[in-house]
Structure to design on (308 residues):
């Protein structure tokens, strides 16, 4: 009698456990699947099926490779086999599935192998969390931060780098950076503001910001660092290239600017420096170029000087 009661209780307990598992499995908010040791879906809950755009019945019998992104299948198979070989009990990875519509679904997969008492593999219990929305929001946040950073280091008027962008370029440089440095000061800019007004002056600055990049190589740096002050970094430049660029800047900015139907000439003074064979930091080049700029101004402006 006692044995009969214990067996009945055990059967009821097993039924209750099974019912609880079924309820937890099918009603779970996250994706769940039972996967055979061959990698085929034995059962899938509604959340997982919805995640992939299938019905639970349609997923049954499919191999997980059938809906795994081609670029992610090898790492998944490697971990799957490592568990089967007893090298680990479970695995977790971020991967991509393919929705029935063809779109990519980012997920976090956790897979655990259930074994018999003798160690024989029975099946995998998999839990799948949809990361698509999280990753989308994360990407949008990264893009927003990148845009914000760009705004912080960009001159709002000319669209080239500003002083903060220049300071970041200096701080990011190597101590032995090989480069040429040009400091540019517009000669008669104040007269434009006084004669034609500040809006006209802004138009001139915008045009200077447009012309200077056209004189440079891809990868060189140009910034507006003050009201009418600009700077150029010529990465990897030798003395000849530095001098040639300084001369081109003086020539380009000596040509007339058209402002609201008026033609104005401003000109520019340029102080130049280059690292040379002995090497120099960008900060040292700035100091040298600054001294050369004063020499250009003392020489009558509208010219350039190279630091000795």
């Amino acid at each position: 009698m006692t044995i009969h009661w214990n067996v009945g209780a055990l059967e009821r307990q097993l039924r209750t456990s099974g019912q609880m598992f079924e309820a937890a499995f099918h009603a779970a908010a996250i994706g769940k699947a039972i996967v055979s040791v061959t990698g085929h879906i034995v059962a899938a809950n509604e959340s997982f099926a919805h995640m992939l755009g299938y019905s639970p019945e349609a997923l049954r019998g499919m191999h997980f490779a059938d809906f795994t992104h081609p670029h992610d299948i090898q790492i998944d198979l490697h971990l799957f086999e490592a568990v089967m070989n007893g090298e680990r009990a479970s695995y977790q990875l971020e991967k991509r599935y393919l929705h029935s519509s063809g779109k990519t679904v980012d997920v976090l997969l956790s897979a655990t192998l259930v074994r018999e008492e003798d160690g024989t593999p029975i099946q995998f219990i998999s839990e799948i969390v949809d990361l698509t929305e999280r990753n989308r929001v994360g990407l949008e946040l990264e893009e927003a931060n990148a845009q914000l950073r760009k705004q912080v280091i960009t001159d709002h008027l000319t669209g080239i780098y500003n002083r903060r962008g220049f300071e970041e370029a200096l701080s990011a440089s190597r101590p032995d950076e090989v480069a040429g440095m040009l400091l540019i000061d517009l000669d008669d800019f104040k007269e434009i503001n006084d004669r034609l007004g500040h809006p006209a002056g802004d138009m001139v600055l915008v045009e200077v910001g447009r012309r200077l990049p056209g004189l440079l190589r891809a990868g060189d740096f140009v910034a507006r660092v003050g009201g009418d002050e600009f700077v150029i970094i010529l990465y990897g430049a030798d003395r000849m290239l530095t001098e040639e660029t300084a001369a081109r800047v003086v020539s380009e900015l000596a040509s007339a600017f058209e402002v609201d139907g008026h033609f104005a000439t401003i000109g520019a003074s340029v102080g130049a420096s280059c690292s040379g064979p002995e090497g120099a930091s960008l900060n040292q080049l700035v100091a040298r170029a600054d001294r050369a700029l004063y020499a250009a101004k003392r020489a009558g402006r509208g010219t350039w000087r190279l630091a000795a």
